[in-house]
Design goal:
mainly alpha; 18 helices; about 0% strand
């Protein structure tokens, strides 16, 4: 059994790398495919439901580290990394794209370790506070939105308009019938192509990328990591919330946020949000993401020993994924400077459009275009792109209120 588990972990990391570095390819796609062929796989004596669950955990955990690479170097984000696109792009244009990735690795790894250490406390307290969280989370979200808009001292009205425009677009995308993976065109437009289009207009050139390590103070790390764990753990237990909402709340809690602390927080929330979802399914039997849903369909009930195994697998996968992300980021850093940046941007835009048309169809393409125009406004007016998270925040708030 141990050999099968080890092989499953390494195979999962491989798929996590593939889903991480390819824009538009999500771990949920692997999970859906695995569930479809699981009856065939389980016919082999050395493959059990537990082995398949370990594979899913390894894929999803490693993906939370790797998916920052296309966000940084290609400007093609997913929901969990969308808010980090602009800071990463700034690092890239300053020759420090790898440093931005390292910041997310630090945030992810430290938050993973702290989250696991706090797991016994979370298991004990979740049952006690879960009913209270369900009733109050919407007010915390509303407060976060108001606080972020209030911080825009010169452009508060425009921030409200951007929040509402992106929110309406998000509601349309999420409720549109038979639209596959609506978040892909939504976030690619609002955060990805809009950022690339601005760079294309300004004729930016990617300078030689330096392999540097971020200079962080202990205070910065000790303040950011616990907030990442708190925010990621909070939303992992609640329906309709994800990494983006956790980042909004985390930003409000940090108050003074530097680019380095923000990227650490993005990396931390992305990882801990998935790993601590094990606590949700174990304690209150609620699955909060596609990977955990897949596990719940393979295993009828998770025992305490299986819970400990899953946490251990997440730690191992996270550590190996951090090493892989660091190596692949260096490879991307060397490659990215050897191509014409303008041609690269045009190629990426064309590639994302092609993927959107294939995955989400013509209506997904329309959402991509509209999202791009909305996403350009904050950059032109020099206000925070975090207001674009209205695309998810507004639907979630309305979900709780209505």
């Amino acid at each position: 059994m141990i050999i099968e588990i080890i092989l499953s972990i390494f195979l999962g990391i491989l798929f996590g790398i593939i889903t991480g570095i390819l824009p538009g390819v999500h771990p949920n796609t692997v999970v859906v495919g695995l569930l479809a062929i699981s009856p065939f796989l389980l016919s082999f004596p050395f493959i059990t439901p537990l082995i398949l669950a370990v594979f899913i955990i390894s894929v999803a955990t490693s993906n939370t580290f790797l998916d920052t690479i296309p966000s940084c170097y290609l400007g093609a984000p997913e929901e969990s990394t969308a808010l980090g696109v602009l800071p990463m792009h700034r690092y890239l244009l300053n020759g420090k794209g790898h440093e931005a990735i390292v910041l997310t690795i630090i945030g992810g790894l430290y938050s993973l370790i702290l989250g696991v250490l706090l797991t016994p406390i979370l298991v004990y307290t979740l049952k006690l506070i879960f009913p209270f969280l369900q009733k109050t989370i919407v007010y915390l979200l509303i407060f976060s939105v108001i606080y972020l808009i209030y911080k825009e001292k010169k452009h508060r009205f425009l921030a409200i308009i951007i929040f509402l425009l992106s929110g309406i677009l998000g509601m349309i995308a999420l409720s549109f019938p038979n639209l596959n993976q609506p978040l892909f065109p939504l976030f690619s437009g609002l955060f990805g192509i809009s950022t690339l289009a601005i760079s294309l207009k300004s004729e930016s050139k990617i300078p030689k990328q330096l392999i540097t390590f971020p200079k962080l103070t202990k205070r910065e790390v000790l303040k950011t990591i616990p907030i990442s764990v708190f925010s990621g753990g909070l939303v992992s237990a609640l329906p309709a919330l994800g990494s983006s909402q956790a980042a909004i709340m985390g930003t409000s809690l940090l108050r003074k946020t530097t680019q380095s602390s923000f990227l650490m927080m993005i990396g931390g929330i992305n990882t801990v949000n998935f790993v601590l979802s094990f606590v949700s399914i174990y304690v209150i039997n609620r699955a909060r993401n596609g990977a955990v849903v897949g596990i719940s369909q393979i295993l009828e009930k998770i025992s305490f020993n299986e819970f400990l195994l899953f946490i251990s697998v997440a730690l191992i996968s996270g550590g190996l994924a951090a090493i892989s992300t660091n190596y692949l980021s260096k490879t991307f850093s060397n490659f990215i400077t050897k191509v014409n940046y303008q041609y690269l941007i045009l190629s990426i835009i064309a590639f994302v459009i092609f993927l959107v048309l294939i995955i989400s169809g013509f209506y997904g393409f329309i959402i991509l275009i509209v999202g791009t125009f909305i996403g350009i406004i904050p950059t032109l007016k020099n206000i925070g792109k975090n207001h674009l998270m209205g695309c998810l925040m507004l639907p979630v708030i309305l979900f709780y209120l209505l």
